[in-house]
Amino acid sequence: MPAASLFAEPGSREEVESGTRFSPRFNAEGLIGCIACEAKTGDVLMFAWMNEEALRKTIETGQAHYWSRARKELWRKGATSGMVQNVVEMRIDCDQDTILMKVRIDGPVAACHMGYRSCFYRSVPAGQAAGPDMVLRFEDTDPVFDPDEVYRR
Amino acid sequence: MPAASLFAEPGSREEVESGTRFSPRFNAEGLIGCIACEAKTGDVLMFAWMNEEALRKTIETGQAHYWSRARKELWRKGATSGMVQNVVEMRIDCDQDTILMKVRIDGPVAACHMGYRSCFYRSVPAGQAAGPDMVLRFEDTDPVFDPDEVYRR
């Protein structure tokens, strides 16, 4: 965790779990996990990471910002794709190390960089033996946008 | 990641994101994040971690198992509280480093060790300046069980 955090330092376990002080707990990399759900349906769209700056910008602008571990940069969701996530509600969990946001995306909803509505477009079918040959099933085969066009990969 | 993984090793980015091979990506600590939602309502209940063994047991028994980072032990959800999570559906995200499960809990639903239905029982109200004085609001003030009784803390 950065030495001088913008947010309150986590206190005792009792304070963190039962109190009303917002004291987000960042991991050793200075990141906190964030689940984004669609406000209207409650469907889980994605899981991503925020650093302190991303969390601050999310709170102050009302638009979701994340930290890209791959690109090592702050990232305003929708900056390229247009799929901006407007934060309708933000929650924090018991030990204050995971954030849950209900977001509103105007227009067709796609949260995944692959063009799908949700990043969770594949299921792990039951009744398989756990092992290296496990096969996924596509539950969503209809991307909202073509990532090659949007991101010019 | 452990040298000899039970599951398939992640291949190219293309394979991981667009393929049907289940190749869960564990982090440097050998863990993968898991979001649990209530199957009936879709509400997000909790976020926890699985190691390879917890994932294998979850797949093979159909009941959620997690890895407790605090206690450093495998943990069958509900072993103490009785709030067993039966896996109705398991999904994996685009880059295969986060799992989403829809779970069925028989009886009154409480996923949080604090006795609440969901770990996300407090909101971060909008319109606050980001900083150390941010105040949370309890959205759920009615625990399903008394953690002091259930866990004999």
Description:
Two copies of one chain form a homodimer. Chain A has 153 residues and is α+β, with helices and mostly antiparallel strands. Chain A has a single domain (13-144), classed as Phosphoribosyl-AMP cyclohydrolase (Ubiquitin-like (UB roll), Roll). Chain A is built from three helices and eight strands. Chain A has helices at 13-18, 52-61, 147-151; strands at residues 32-38, 44-50, 65-68, 73-76, 86-92, 98-104, 122-123, 137-138. In chain A, strands 2-1-6-5 form a four-stranded mixed sheet. The model of chain A has no long low-confidence stretch (mean pLDDT 93). At the A-B interface, strand 1, strand 2, helix 2, strand 5 and strand 6 of A face strand 1, strand 2, helix 2, strand 5 and strand 6 of B. Strand 5 of chain A pairs antiparallel with strand 7 of chain B.
How would you summarize what this structure contains?
2 copies of one chain form a homodimer. By secondary structure, chain A is of the alpha+beta class.
Distinctive features:
about 150 residues, 4-stranded mixed sheet, two-stranded antiparallel ribbon, homodimer, alpha+beta, globular, Ubiquitin-like (UB roll)
Largest sheet of chain A: 4 strands, mixed
SSE string of chain A, helices as H and strands as E: HEEHEEEEEEH
Oligomer: homodimer
> What is the number of strand segments of chain A?
8
What portion of the residues of chain A fall into strands of 2 or more residues? 25-35%
How do the strands line up in the largest sheet of chain A?
2-1-6-5
Instruction: Tell me the number of helical segments of chain A per DSSP (H or I, 4 or more residues long).
Output: 3
CATH architecture identity of chain A:
Roll
Q: In the residues of chain A, how many domains can be counted? A: 1
| CATH topology value of chain A | Ubiquitin-like (UB roll)
Radius of gyration of chain A: 17 Å
Low-confidence stretches of chain A: none
Distance between the termini of chain A: 34 Å
Helix content of chain A: 10-25%
CATH 4th-level superfamily of chain A: Phosphoribosyl-AMP cyclohydrolase
Overall shape of chain A: it is globular
Arithmetic mean pLDDT of chain A? 93
CATH class of chain A: Alpha Beta
Structural class determined from secondary elements of chain A: alpha+beta
